[in-house]
Design goal:
With about 160 residues, this protein is mainly α. The protein is built from 10 helices and no strands. The chain starts with a helix and ends with a helix.
Length: about 160
């Protein structure tokens, strides 16, 4: 709980230190503490630690949840690591974790931030095919990606789909 509070207060470094101290203090790391550490990593410059925490869960006795994977994918998005984000989506499918709006939106935003607009639109179309209903965040990422790719007609068409 303390790790989560630190993360929410944008004290990501303190959250990571507390999480790292838990085993030394004899406190077992559970799913909630891992998820808090993953979320904290997403907010700081050590975004790749979020991925390492999920991998540590996989090699240990914990099964990462959809929240764990989405938080790690959000870390990729915040760091603008679109290739890693797309690879993370594929990995989630391989380990049978359901992809939801958060999963797709994080990857779409990572693509949008790095101006690979075609990937963002492809993800939106895939969402629609698999019935993962896009929300305002999904459409905003696709519209922004279209605009950055100077695809204003696509952006207008997407805006019309929202209405």
């Amino acid at each position: 709980a303390v790790t989560s509070c630190c993360s929410k207060a944008r004290r990501w470094q303190l959250a990571r230190e507390l999480f790292g101290a838990m085993p030394r203090l004899g406190i077992p790391c559970d799913l909630l503490s891992y998820n808090a550490a993953i979320s904290a990593s997403a907010k700081g410059p050590l975004w790749d630690h979020a991925l390492l925490y999920v991998q540590a869960m996989q090699t240990g006795s914990l099964r990462p949840s959809q929240i764990s994977y989405n938080a790690a994918n959000t870390a990729c998005e915040k760091a603008g690591r679109w290739l890693t984000s797309l690879a993370w989506l594929r990995h989630m499918s391989v380990v049978a974790v359901e992809l939801d709006r958060v999963s797709y939106s994080a990857a779409m935003s990572a693509c949008e931030k790095t101006e690979v607009w075609m990937h963002s639109l492809s993800l939106l179309h895939h969402m629609l095919r698999v019935e993962a209903t896009p929300d305002a965040i999904s459409y905003n990422a696709a519209i922004s990606a279209s605009a950055k790719g100077q695809q204003w007609q696509l952006a207008i068409g997407l805006l019309a789909q929202i209405s």
